[in-house]
Every structure is written in structure tokens, then in C-alpha cells.
Amino acid sequence: MRILIVGAGVAGMTLAALLRRQGLDPTMVEKAPNLDHAGYMLGLWPLGYRVLHGLSLYDRFAAESIPGNHYEVRSDDGSLVHNWSMEPISRKFGPNLSCTRPQLVRLLREELGDLDLRYGTGVSSIEQGNSDVLVEFTDGSSGEFDLVVGADGIHSQVRALVFGEAPTYDTGWGGWVWWASLETLPKETFMEHWGAGRFVGAYPTHDGAGIFAGGPRGDGLEDPGPGRRDRIRAHFAGMGERVDAWLEALPDDDKSLFYWKLLDIRSEEWTKGRVVLLGDAAAAFLPTAGIGASMAMESAAVLADELSRTDQTTLPHALSLYVKRRRDRVERIQDDSRHLARAMFVKSGTLAHIRDLITKHYSLEQLAKSIAKAFDEPI
Ligand SMILES: Cc1cc2nc3c(=O)[nH]c(=O)nc-3n(C[C@H](O)[C@H](O)[C@H](O)COP(=O)(O)OP(=O)(O)OC[C@H]3O[C@@H](n4cnc5c(N)ncnc54)[C@H](O)[C@@H]3O)c2cc1C
Q1: Residue 108 and residue 49: Cα distance in Å, rounded?
Q2: Residue 290 domain-assigned?
Q3: Which of 10, 62, 117, 375 has a 20 to 30 Å separation from 105 between CA atoms?
Q4: 242 lines ligand 1 (CB under 6 A)
Q5: Is the CB–ligand 1 distance for residue 213 below 6 Å?
Q6: From the alpha carbon of 29, which atom of ligand 1 is closest?
Q7: 3-state class of 292 per DSSP?
Q8: In a domain, 339, yes or no
Q9: Position in ligand 1 atom list of the atom nearest CA 279
Q10: H helices present in 281-314, as ranges
């Protein structure tokens, strides 16, 4: 089967590695010039990294990542709201493992050997015939394929070309991502400060603590350039000593800094003929449950499974089965991430205070209901 995977991110790489195991030889194109872009932190739930066992990559992944054994939430002024042990989940299903996106993507890349992966290349047109798909690439070349997989992330070009605009869920918030010393975090702890009109989270990786600091867009917090560091420091002042230490590590104004709009998308269709969407391209996630990458990997495993049971002639049917197996589960968990966002991204001080009082009495399972349920469901 001639398969084109557009996007060498978490979903595309996982799918490519699984297809190679099946003896298939997909072509991949990646818009970025290398795999080091998007160097942010990622926490993977067992839902997602279970796939790495089948690729014999799990032990190396575990060695390169840090288990999140505690999840600690603090309030606007830095006082403790709740510290949950992740042990009940870890013991039964496996720990949440924290790494960087490039670490995971590079690990998967090593599994791909001499696979045809073209960097700096996107798609400019996609045309479906009766039994194949003609694709023109941004480098001027073209190719015919039996299947095109759009694994090109939240701003998917494949989705735009074949499926049209997808509805967006926008929290109206956004935030900056940077790195601080690992020493600024308690050992093996994911720490979040749920404030009023501000949120700061820190997540451990072997490359340091990944910091995410967010607030409502439109207040000037998102403005790049001169004054950026002072503006961010002023917005997050008074949240406690740890936040102060993270703010100390903010890069200078002229250095590049990743700004992330806190919105997601949900494509109304995942497949049309011989084109299918995978990962964030089909349903992107807010960061609140730290589960977008896990869902992308799980979806890649199901798509690979369906592709192992078909050939060119019945391919569209196999794609429809993939959607049936994935869509409800992914959208339910996406809903959970949206519910969490409503609790985490609160502007009013009064609402934040009430939220903190309620959160003190919550179990981890209550906090993210469908995610906890998803651990125990077959896919
Ligand atoms: C700051 C941040 C923190 C996050 N934290 C977590 C977390 O803790 N846990 C978690 O599970 N998830 C997290 N996520 C979400 C997670 O990164 C995504 O859900 C996951 O990467 C989705 O995988 P994907 O392959 O679908 O998309 P991506 O990993 O984004 O990969 C898409 C790839 O397609 C490429 N591409 C884009 N357009 C084109 C084109 N036209 N042609 C060719 N290539 C193209 C991109 O360059 C990219 O390499 C986080 C996201 C961000 C931004």
C-alpha cells in the first residue's frame, strides 16, 4: 500500500513506526526543517505510551522520562489546595511519564530506519480519484497514494484542503512556555497554581522543568518583543516563591519564546474516501488533562491495526472502522479537558476561591472522570 503520512509529530511518527513493523513503507512529509521544533514538555499517560511496548521502545522511553508521582495544586497566592498521590493510578496502570516532545519524536524516528521522510515539505493540493489520491507538495513534486493520513496537528492543512474548517473551542486564554532548573520543583511532582486570571504549571523532564504560564488573551500578556519579560513577571507576581524562581528563568525579550493559544478543534469528519485524520488534526486537546499526545498515540495504534486488516480495495471501509473505534472515546476525553479548563482558567477571585474549596475535597478520579474511566476500557 502506498501510504503518505503528512506530519512527523507524535501521531505521525507512532503510526509510521507501527506500519514499519507490519512491513509497510510509508512516505512522510514534515513542514519543519527538523524534529527539534516544538520543544515543549509532554506528560504521557499509560493510555498512550502502552504503544511503545509493542515497538520495544518502552524501556528507553521510561529511562528518558520522569514519573509524575504527585500532582500538586496551589492557589493564586501559592498556598496548598491539594497534593494527590498518583500511586493508585500508577500501581494499576503505570505512571504518568514526563518527557519533552523532541525526545519522544526522536525515539520513534530511530525505529524508522531509512524511511522516506522529507523535511521542509508540506502539501499544496490533494485530489481524490476512484482508487488513489494525487498529492502535490510545496516543493513542487507530486505523488500518487492509496491512502493519505493527515497527522499535521491542530492547524492541519490536510483537514483544511479535504474537510474544510473545523469548529473551535476557545477558552480565550493563552500562555508562554519556557524552561527552569529542575531543582525548582519538588521531586517527581507536577505542580500547578490555579489562580484568578492566571495559571502557572511546572512539569519535570530530564531537560529541566517545563513552565507554562497563562492568562486571558487581550490583556497584553501575549505581546512579544520589548517589555515581554517584565510584563509576564508583573502578571504572575505574588504567587509564591516557586513561581518567583520560575519567573527568574524567563528568557530575555529578544529570545524566541513559545506562545500557545488555549483552544482546541473537533473535526466534524475524520475520513473522506482515502484520506483520514489522526491526532490533533482530527481532535486537538487543551493541555488541562495532559492527554493530547496519549490520545494521538492510541489513535495511531488503532489506525495501524485497521490497516493491517485491509488492502487497497476495502481501505475506505477500514478507515470507517477506525473512526468508529476512536471518535466517541476521543471526544469524551476532549470534553473532560474542556470541563477542566472551566475550573482551571477562572478570572474572578470569588469563583477561584470557591473552586479551591471544592478542589480540596476532590479525588483524582473525580477531577477527570472520563479519563479515569478510559484507563479501564478496551479500545
Ligand atoms: C505547550 C504544550 C504542552 C503540551 N503538553 C501535553 C502533555 O503534557 N501531555 C499530552 O498528552 N499532550 C500535551 N500537549 C498536546 C500534544 O503535544 C499534542 O496533542 C500532540 O503532540 C498531538 O500529536 P500530533 O502528532 O497530532 O500533532 P503534533 O505533535 O503537533 O505534530 C504535527 C506535526 O505536523 C507538522 N505539520 C504541520 N503542518 C504541516 C503540513 N502542512 N505539512 C507537513 N507537516 C506539517 C508539524 O510541524 C508537526 O511536526 C501539549 C501541547 C503543547 C503545545
Answers
A1: 11
A2: yes
A3: 375
A4: no
A5: no
A6: 43
A7: helix
A8: yes
A9: 26
A10: 292-307
Domain of residue 14: give its range: 3-68+95-168+264-344
Nearest atom, ligand 1, residue 48 CA: 11
Count of domains forming the chain: 1
Ligand 1 in contact with 105 (CB < 6 A)?
A: no
Q: Is the pLDDT of residue 293 over 90?
A: yes
At position 307, the amino acid (one-letter code) is L
User: Tell me: the pLDDT tens digits for 62-98?
Assistant: 999 999 999 999 999 999 999 999 998 899 899 999 9
CA separation for the pair 280, 264 (Å, rounded): 9
The secondary structure of 99-152 as a DSSP string is EEHHHHHHHHHHTTTT-EEEET--EEEEEE-SS-EEEEETTS-EEEESEEEE--
Per-residue pLDDT tens digits for 161-214: 999 999 999 999 999 999 999 999 999 999 999 999 999 999 999 999 999 999
Any residues with CB less than 8 A from the CB of 125 and at least 6 apart, and which? 134, 135, 136, 161
For residue 247, is it left (φ>0), alpha (ψ between -120 and 50) or beta? alpha
Centroid of ligand 1 to alpha carbon of 155 (angstroms): 10
**Segments in the chain forming alpha helices (H):** 10-21, 46-54, 58-64, 87-93, 101-110, 157-162, 228-235, 241-248, 292-307, 315-344, 349-359, 364-367, 369-374
SS3 of residue 48 by DSSP: helix
Mean pLDDT along residues 256-285: 97
Asked, for residue 258, whether it belongs to a domain, the answer is no
Q: Pick from 15, 18, 30 the residue to mutate for probing ligand 1's pocket: most ligand atoms within 8 Å of its CB.
A: 30
Residue type, 295: M
Atom nearest to 35 CA in ligand 1: 49
Domain harbouring 36, CATH code = 3.50.50.60
Q: 335 lies in a domain?
A: yes
